[in-house]
Amino acid sequence: MHLLALFVVALWPLPLSLSQLELPDCPDTSLTDYLVALIDALYANGLTTFESLITSLSETEGGYDLLSSWYNSQSTLTLLAPTDTAFQSAGITPPFKHLSEWEMVNLMSLHTLDGQWDYEKLPAYPLHSIASTDLVLAEAMNSTVNTTASQVAVLQQAQDGGNVVQVKADNVTAKSWSGLVNLSAASQLWNLQVLPIDSVLPLPPKLSVALTLPTSSRSANGFNNLTSLLSSSSTSPSMSDLEALTVRGFTIFAPVDDAWENPDVKVALNDSTLASNHYTTTYSLYSTAWYGPGQFLNLTLDSGASVDVVYNNSGNFVVMGDQSTQILRSDVLLENGVLHIIDKVLLPISSTPTSASTSPTSGNARPSESVPNAPTGPIQPITTPSAITSGNSTGSVPGEKDAQSSGAGILAVRFWGVVLALSGTFLVSL
């Protein structure tokens, strides 16, 4: 047993308030043995910064509660464990003095997935899955909004296979390389999986930041027109209002810039409901919700209009009255919800010309790569992450096979307590 493991055995240097806490009553093991086994396994696999983070967490009240929740979990959790090099590249190094207790807990919570997640649990590329994390949105955003909704993670197999899992967050793609850590010798860790990854996951961005990112081949320069509309002084609510946490979630359908060249769109710019025709502040709709039955009906937008989200052999579509727009990419994560990229502007019903109608079975639409058994459900208040899959199921959702978008430039990425500027060439694909 190495030196870092000794802190658990002796429960030092825990604050007095923590050392006085009663350890969970377990007939087979104790929280102490559990953490010792985990730390030894991480150390044996070279994940020393991750184990040091666990050490630091145990010295805080919030961190101790998180570690105890792992121990007490009756279902399997998957820990995404960044390598030492990944932590160093993100500017995160022991003893983590630049991170507050709140930031450390949120960092670890974002890297904790509910359920069993590994290469074999994911559908074949380019499909992707949605996994719930332990990061509660209200805690991450330091909000007093009464919701227990959690952030999610997007996972998929790598294009070239090789047992590689990709985890997509912001414009960062973290990859595993050799599968799960072997924990067979640690019987105490019956409810844990550890998947090493080569990048630290950043927090999902605010809406205003996400709209500047090259998230698809048709939005390589971001969403300038939608940004202008949402930032207009005549638009209410404001961009900052839309970035706030709501009790029931947030979903926005973001048209690509070239969609705004339509003459009918230029006329609709004078309609006060054009902006709110693209979002709802009452539900976070992930793509799992519409694939299962082939549709998700009657999603009410903040404009008062209702849309159906439809899946068929031609693709995934948002249908509003006689209008239909294809979803080019789904499940772009936001700090307070989710964004889906669409290829047309959703015109207010009052200003929709007959010519705007497009069949959702258009022969020009790209087929959607999907597999069955994705869960769904009616629109309802969010008390847990909405429309997400269990790690114990196939966990697959529609994946829009968008071409890669590349470009040179500087990309600002918000990590934990650090803002890094990444320069050079970056690739973006679902």
TrEMBL record:
Sequence intervals crossing the membrane: none
A GO cellular component annotation in the UniProt record: extracellular space
Listed SMART domains: FAS1 (SM00554)
InterPro entries per the UniProt record, alphabetical: Adhesion/Biosynth-related, FAS1_dom_sf, FAS1_domain
Biased composition, class Polar residues, residue ranges: 363-373, 381-396
Residues covered by the FAS1 domain: 210-346
GO BP, sorted A to Z: macroautophagy
Pfam families documented for this protein: Fasciclin (PF02469)
Region (Disordered): 353-403
This protein's record includes keyword Hydrolase: no
Annotated Low complexity bias: 353-362
Coiled-coil ranges (or none): none
Signal peptide positions (record): 1-19
Highest taxon in the source lineage: Eukaryota
Protein name: FAS1 domain-containing protein
